[in-house]
Design a protein that fits this description.
By secondary structure, the chain is α/β, with parallel strands linked by helices. The protein contains 13 helices and 15 strands. Helix 9 links the parallel strand 9 and strand 10. Helix 1 packs across helix 11. It is globular, with a radius of gyration of 21 Å.
Length: about 425
Amino acid sequence: MMRAARAIALAVAAVAASGTVTAQTRGAAGSVAPPAQTVRIAYLDPLSGPFAAVGQNILKHFQVAAETATARQLAGAGVRFEIVPFDSKGSPQEALTLLRAIADQGIHYVVQGQGSHVAIPLSEAITRNNERNPKQAIVLLNYAAIDPDLTNSRCSFWHFAFDANTEMKMEALTDYIKDRSEIRNVYLLNQNYSHGQQTARYARELLARKRPDVKIVGEDFVPLGQVRDFSPYIAKIRAAGADTVITGNWGTDLVLFVRAARDAGLTAGFYTYYAGVIGTPTAMGASGADRVRQVSYWHPNVANNPLEPVYVDFKKRFGEEWYVLASYNALGMLAEAIKRAGSAEPLKVAHTMSGMKMSGPMGEIEMRASDHQLQQPLFISTFTKAGGPVRFDAEKTGFGFRTEKSIPTYVASTPTSCNMQRPAKP
């Protein structure tokens, strides 16, 4: 009975994320069903080290998404999806070494997301590989590395971004902040790599335009995954008189940061990108209620949530939160591209996925052809006591996220400077 319930839940989520398709559905006009085969996808992210908890959690997201795509025959009858884990340890050098092994094993798809410091050299290495070894071509499905350069100055035909980038998220956050008159003094604390630096940059620029009366009273960058004690930073925030903190931190760097703020009794409001990521709700607890907000493309208490079955089932199955909508959008769009192309050959799939539009759980999604940045709505939500519209709490804390503002796709979208070089269609 539990297995049947799980299958139903996964099927509902797959239909919501990937559009209603069946094994008999044909894709684009003239397409043919792809041959029966196993499509292997390398999961290349930290499975050990300081960010292992996040990596292991998201690995399960992709494994469940692969199970769903296979069970629902989203790419056509007989097409199976298999996730093959590779431990990057959060290191660009390790990721590039593993990329060679991935290519040697004949794996043509890579999912990666933990760190733009990895995604940027990885995307560039994949582009070089595909130019030199077209028979070993690889497509990069980026679910969370959000440095805007990846879809602007360093864009690649072979790279597809399924999360909103840093600029898009800061546009949404500052659209919300501009109407919050209580915000006067802001402190910026971010990780010292490309995403953290871009978060600080766009916060300064967009606040100056939308709320010129707001003062940036302090700014710090912390080395990625190396700080164990954030109490000195909390002391600096308090001494600066900040009423608000903006941070793009994630993983252990956010968990330890909010835990230090809780322990020190810091009452400043937190505006975050990743408060819903594993471990962070537990670190916040009651101290984060009604003062921690996040920008995201989904959370479990969004209105008319079509992904409730998969969220509930994932929590029962693993005892962990399900929050990475990009895992379903990425597998759903990949499967649909394979179906429409009638092939799992990387070049054909990449050309098919470029510009693709399809139904997603929050509405229509589009992989913008000009830069391969997924266009999707965003939400601002507040961490608050469960009850009423907050039907699901996070990590058994008794607190969950409540939508404060919905940002439609056309508002969340930002321009691109990408000048993409496209290989000829096969």
